[in-house]
């Protein structure tokens, strides 16, 4: 949100959209940090929650890319495409770990 907004002409994503996406990412980071500090014994539901949130964020990003496609440059498409891959792989990993058999705490 802070870095990409300075490069809006290069990527093509409107600044206001970048700020919203950055704010959402900050909320997710804050949630994860709080979970880390609390260290709940039953941590799996918390990990599942952030995984689902990450998937919803990926859907939002994909929707914005589709909606704003004509404004995005090739660099913007590449950046947000790569971001989608990273976030979805992260969410899949989180769901896999959270769905484990309970032998790891």
Secondary structure: elements and pairs:
Elements: H1 3-6, H2 8-11, H3 15-38, H4 44-67, H5 74-98
What is the number of helical segments per DSSP (H or I, 4+ residues)?
Answer: 5
Helix/sheet category: mainly alpha
Query: Spans with pLDDT under 50 lasting ≥5 residues?
Result: none
Morphology = elongated
**Could you give the order of the helices and strands?**
HHHHH
Round the mean pLDDT to the nearest integer and report it: 91
Distance between the termini: 34 Å
| Helix percent band | over 70%
Task: Please outline the major beta sheet.
Answer: none
The fraction of residues in strands falls at under 5%
What integer value in Å does the Rg equal?
A: 16 Å
Count of β-strands:
0
Textual characterization of the structure:
By secondary structure, the protein is mostly helical. The protein has five helices and no strands. It has helices at residues 3-6, 8-11, 15-38, 44-67, 74-98. It is elongated, with a radius of gyration of 16 Å. The N and C termini lie far apart (34 Å).
Q: Keyphrases for this structure?
A:
single chain, 105 residues, 5 helices
Q: What's this model, at a glance?
A:
The chain has 105 residues and is an all-alpha fold. The protein is 77% helix and 0% strand.
